């Protein structure tokens, strides 16, 4: 599972009235086909969302604070949400965390983000193994899941609001 979340925080550049576009595009050009580009900005960067959308990137946006937007850009894998349309999917890389941290981090994200609770946003977690203790918790909380990948390098699990 050679996937990575490549993180770039341009909030200080934006506060200093600097233009981060070149740095963003350099970061995007270095992505692997399965990598996720995670951008931290002081506003929702709709122009960038359009530019990268034309390059085939899907996106998911989470507002972490008044002036903190986290936007993830990724290549969609063909998974489709309810009604046949692909839904935005936020990625959490839980690999390398000791139990129960992956489970707590995942449940915390789902609780903190109303878009997950309403079904507008899906969550994809990357764990070292299939999270056996998490799966019944998800069902109890009204979520469904799909194990997208399981191999010696880790597991990918898609989590979404059950119908």
Describe this structure in words.
By secondary structure, the protein is of the alpha/beta class. The protein folds into two domains: 70 residues, Translation Initiation Factor IF3; 76 residues, Translation Initiation Factor IF3 (2-Layer Sandwich), CATH 3.30.110.40. The chain contains six helices and eight strands.
* Number of distinct helices: 6
Q: Gyration radius, to the nearest Å?
A: 16 Å
Strand content: 25-35%
Number of self-contained structural domains: 2
CATH C-level class of the largest domain: Alpha Beta
What would the average pLDDT be, to the nearest integer? 94
CATH homologous superfamily annotation of the largest domain: TusA-like domain
Strand order of the largest sheet: 1-2-4-3
The major beta sheet can be summarized as: 4 strands, mixed
Tell how many strands the DSSP assignment holds. Answer: 8
Q: Helical percent range?
A: 25-40%
CATH level-two architecture of the largest domain: 2-Layer Sandwich
Overall geometric form: globular
User: From N to C, what is the helix and strand string?
Assistant: EHHEHEEEHHEHEE
What is the CA–CA distance across the termini?
30 Å
Q: By helix and strand content, what is the structural category? A: alpha/beta
Core attributes:
single chain, 163 residues, alpha/beta, Translation Initiation Factor IF3, 2 domains, 4-stranded mixed β-sheet, 6 helices, globular
In short:
The chain is of the alpha/beta class and 163 residues long.
Secondary structure elements and their pairing?
Layout: E1 5-9, H1 11-15, H2 21-29, E2 36-41, H3 46-54, E3 58-65, E4 68-74, E5 89-93, H4 101-112, H5 114-118, E6 122-127, H6 134-140, E7 143-151, E8 154-161
Parallel strand pairs: 1-2, 5-6
Antiparallel strand pairs: 2-4, 3-4, 6-8, 7-8
């Amino acid at each position: 599972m050679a996937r990575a979340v490549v993180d770039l925080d341009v909030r200080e550049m934006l506060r200093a009235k600097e233009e981060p576009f070149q740095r963003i595009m350099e970061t995007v050009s270095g992505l692997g086909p399965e990598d996720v580009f995670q951008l931290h900005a002081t506003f929702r960067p709709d122009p960038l969302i359009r530019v990268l959308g034309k390059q085939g990137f899907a996106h998911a946006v989470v507002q972490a604070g008044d002036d903190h937007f986290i936007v993830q850009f990724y290549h969609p894998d063909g998974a489709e949400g309810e009604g046949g349309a692909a839904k935005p999917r936020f990625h959490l890389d839980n690999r390398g965390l000791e139990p129960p941290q992956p489970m707590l981090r995942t449940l915390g994200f789902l609780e903190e983000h109303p878009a997950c609770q309403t079904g507008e946003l899906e969550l994809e977690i990357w764990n070292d193994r299939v999270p056996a203790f998490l799966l019944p918790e998800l069902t109890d909380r009204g979520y469904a899941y799909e194990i997208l990948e399981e191999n010696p390098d880790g597991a990918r699990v898609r989590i979404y609001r059950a119908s």
